[in-house]
Amino acid sequence: MFDIHAILQCPKCRCPLPESLVCPQCGTRYTHGFGVYNLIHMELSGEQEYLNREELTEDYLAQFLSDEKVSLSTEVDDYYARMNKETLDGFAAQDLYVRKRLHALQGTVCDLATGGGNMLQLVLDEAPADVTIVCTDISNLELAVTRRKRCPARENVYCVATDGRYLAVQDSSFDWITSFAGFGNIPDTEKVASELYRVLKPGGRLLIKGSYIEKDSRSYALAESVGIARGMVEEYLLQDLRDAGFAKVQSTVVAEAVWAENPYDLIPAAGDLQRFCVIEAVK
Ligand SMILES: C[S@@+](CC[C@H](N)C(=O)[O-])C[C@H]1O[C@@H](n2cnc3c(N)ncnc32)[C@H](O)[C@@H]1O
């Protein structure tokens, strides 16, 4: 029987967390509410742009769950509506490729940067129903909303708000890690790659959807200015995964498209080429 408390740790001290969620070493009091363990240490992650700084309450969450107000999902719908056909076809090709791979999932699966839950939904649709899913994201708000929208009744789905660079998870906890756009949104790609390696069990596997940009592009300059460029260039990302210790690192580009102007996106820049990829690797 899976016990979430058996895998949690203080992201700062890296010592196991008791059920009280008070770190025995540094005394930090972490919390649990609205189905989400909030294991963010502000000294490590306080500067992160996606961090939710509001207190979660039923009223606050209701704003994002209501259909009448602009919700997280309405924005996502609008975002996709502004994409060109090649881009939508690219995402569809990526999903098709990943769906076939997801049948092999077993044991405990971590989804990195779960956000609005596109990848989570694929896992829910395709993976065996008995896998345990641990959704992670720096935003406890995203996790609370996504959990309620995507799988309110499913018991073996847990949510942990944690920084991908300092995962609040003990070594060798997961059989699989999935992600869509984790690399490309979380800064410090080398740190993220090392953390993914650390929290996978020996023999554990990565299955990641992402997109590549070109090194000499405007998108690259923009990505570099916010610290996410290495996670978006094929050569660098694969190198960082190998340097972290991963074996059998395989990158498959399933489609490419010129990015259309989209007010929601800083990156890629409109007019730049984007290559849709799936990365697989083994610890
Ligand atoms: C574009 S979304 C990812 C899409 C999502 N995986 C899906 O399948 O729909 C990017 C996510 O990265 C998360 N994020 C940003 N910085 C992070 C960090 N340092 N650690 C963990 N998650 C982070 C954001 O909160 C956001 O939810």
Structure description:
- The protein has a nine-stranded mixed beta sheet with strand order 1-2-5-4-3-6-7-9-8, with helices on both faces.
- Helix 4 crosses helix 5 and helix 7 (189-199) packs across helix 9.
- It contains nine helices and nine strands.
- It has one domain: Vaccinia Virus protein VP39 (Rossmann fold).
- Helix 7 links the parallel strand 6 (174-180) and strand 7 (200-212).
- With 283 residues, the chain is α/β, with parallel strands linked by helices.
- It is 32% helix and 23% strand.
- The longest helix is centred in the first third of the chain and has 18 residues, at 85-102.
- It starts with 30 loop residues before the first strand and ends with a strand.
- It has helices spanning 42-45, 58-65, 72-81, 85-102, 118-126, 140-150, 189-199, 218-225, 234-244; strands at residues 31-33, 36-38, 108-112, 132-137, 157-161, 174-180, 200-212, 247-258, 273-282.
- The structure holds S-adenosylmethionine.
- S-adenosylmethionine binds next to helix 5.
Q: In a few lines, what is going on in this structure?
A:
This protein is an alpha/beta fold.
Small molecules bound in the structure, each named once: S-adenosylmethionine
In CATH, the homologous superfamily goes by the name Vaccinia Virus protein VP39
**What structural class do helix, strand and pairing data support?**
alpha/beta
- Order of strands across the widest beta sheet? 1-2-5-4-3-6-7-9-8
User: What profile does the largest beta sheet have?
Assistant: 9 strands, mixed
Proportion of beta-strand residues: 15-25%
Pick out the low-confidence regions: none
Count helical runs: 9
Using only CA atoms, what is the Rg?
18 Å
Number of domains: 1
Second-tier CATH architecture: 3-Layer(aba) Sandwich
- The pLDDT mean sits at 94
Under CATH at level 1, the class stands as Alpha Beta
3D shape: globular
